[in-house]
Amino acid sequence: MTKDITINNYILNTVRLPSNTSSDNEVKIIQGAYRIEYLMEEVRVSYKRDVNVSVGGLTIDAKEGDLSSLPRWVAKILLDQDTVEIPDNHVSTYISRALNRERIAKPHDLSGIDTDFYIRVNDYLEGLKERERENLIVSMNSFIASRLEKIVKLAAASPLSPELKEKLSAEENELYILVHNSSSTFKQRVLKKFV
After folding, report:
1. pLDDT for the residue 10
2. Packing angle between helix 130-157 and helix 89-104, nearest 10 degrees?
3. pLDDT attached to residue 16
4. Which of 66, 94, 143, 144 has its CA 20 to 30 A from that of 125?
5. How far is CA 50 from the centre of its chain?
6. What is the DSSP letter of 115?
7. Measured in whole angstroms, how far is the alpha carbon of residue 24 from the centre of its chain?
8. pLDDT level of residue 29 (50, 70, 90 thresholds)
């Protein structure tokens, strides 16, 4: 898998590692690439107090109550300092919709999710109170179990199609390839020359 990330007109590339590298390392590298892209996205913030600061070549001059867009990584720093608020209503809705789409999907159909879905979920979980976090984790475990069952069945039966790839997160894409390759190898071993 190759993932290009554009940051300030510079393109960073992450590429599939050699086959002797563990798939866990591949997933971590791919997750890292998507996390960088996620942290570079612009996010709306509301200032809780006056701010005049330079961060990473970015100058911020805002008054209490002002609204602006900042890269998510900057917004998170300012949030930790209790300087801004980041409205999260859209993230909660985004996750709820994905969970509902999967819940109502047919038993053999995967609903589509974004390639960075799990990165967004984990970031959202970090900001929740313990009780809210526990409730979402219960829902996510059911969501993951449903998708895992479907991915394993599909991957054992056929290679990854472009249409299906569009429905998978980056982690699920790697899982699909791993299951498909393992399934193919298993079939070749047990049926020897007949496959």
Report:
1. 47
2. 40
3. 44
4. 66
5. 33
6. T
7. 16
8. confident
